[in-house]
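Service request form, structural biology core

Requester: graduate student, group of Dr. S.
Request type: structure prediction, single chain
Budget code: on file
Notes: please return the result as structure tokens.

Sequence provided:
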Amino acid sequence: MEESLWFFTVLAFFFITLVYKFITHKYGASNPRKIFPPSPPSLPIIGHLHLLRNNNEPLHRTFHKLSQKYGPVMFLRLGYRNVLIVSSPSAVEECFTKNDIIFANRPRSLAGKHLNYNYRSMIWAPYGDYWRTLRRLTTLELFTMKQLSMLDQFRKEEVRVLLKQLVQDCGTNGWAKVELRHRLKKLSFNVLMQMIAGKRYYSEDEADLEARRFRELIKELMQIHGLSNLNDFFPVLQLVDFQGVEKRMKELMKKMDGFFQSLIDEQRKMRSDGACVEGKPTLIDIMLSLQQQDPEFYTDETMKGVITTILRAGTGSASTAVEWTMSILLNHPDEMEKARAEIEDNVGHERLLDEADLPKLEYLQKIYTESLRLFPPAPLLVPRESSEDCTISGFHIPRGTQLLVNAWSIHRDPDLWENPTKFMPDRFESGKSGFEGFKMIPFGVGRRACSGSPLGKRLMGIVLGALIQCFEWEKIDGEEIDMAEGLFQVLIKAEPLKSLCKPRHDAVFW
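Core staff response, request fulfilled:
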């Protein structure tokens, strides 16, 4: 039934395609004065969508294989969309220096419309005064060194909760088999919610109906964001909601909006009652203060869009990065021992390491930097869209082209990295972060790079360091950890990390 519906949909687009071909022949790709990037052979109507239907590998690997054949600047047509795939530092630099403003917009999508307050969240907002104000809010108010330092106690407490839970798993038997993914997600999510609203939403108390309801909403939000939505490639399908995705998005966002509004209303009431914590303002508290100064801009909807952005961008990135790094270290025990020795030399046995120790732990920094190189949480950077015609690497790029940067491919380019698939922390010598020259871009690049990267690095460092400092880790039955990648937008392991852990006898500070 589904295949028949697809067939008739294709026929319905046939006439549109003929018109499209006529227009592009007269004004576009066939114009001999404009040299377009190399492109694989395409099919009528669907373009190159058929090349992306390999269910056995993630999308960044498919693009990587195509770029090896057609070059680091490649042009695809996915339905009605023109898409530019870039996988070289020189092309990335050209996109985000000379053409940074041109590529400062986001493409239109159902997710941007229905899950992000009609493009009012910072991730999906079009480039302009509104977006710039939101960007200043995050960089000058939310993720400053001062604000992060004021809230470091939240992060420290969540790390202690994680350590206590692992100790309980081990009991009196010493070694215990543990699965880290769920606990790492709980930790990162609680850190974000403490910053946003001063509340924990993951706890051992499953009777907390409010927290459980919110966790279910967030889980559904992550799932529906990752759906392959044909409506985005063929807008006419939106007239009939071809896959039912639009209806699901509207229903979910109605629930999410109600929950976000309850958080704002609760914080507003606390302010009026004088119950806010002095010296530890939450994100909502900061935005309510700004709302008093500029109520026309800082509406409740604007605030809810900011909350959506932070939860969407931050919930999985740090936890995923720690899971990958622990997986790598279990396969490279010598490197884990070097990190443990560094922690013992600089922190000792009498206390748990904290964020102030991280600058001294150079080898630990090298480890998680190398892990981010091999397994960037966002292997394809969040898409951009050109607002006007431009030129990249000598090729004509028409207005309205969606830009996808394959960070995963750049991070493994043998022309840029020695033994690119090998885990080598020492490749990042002192004073060389690896982030120079657009060859290391796990947090994006340009004016729309991730503003939350300082928080992500702190959280990754403190969690990883605590796990190494407080526990012994071993592979189960001595078998290598499977490093296969899942088929998702965020680069997660296909299988959750499972390993053996045992509290170290001298670690007694949880």
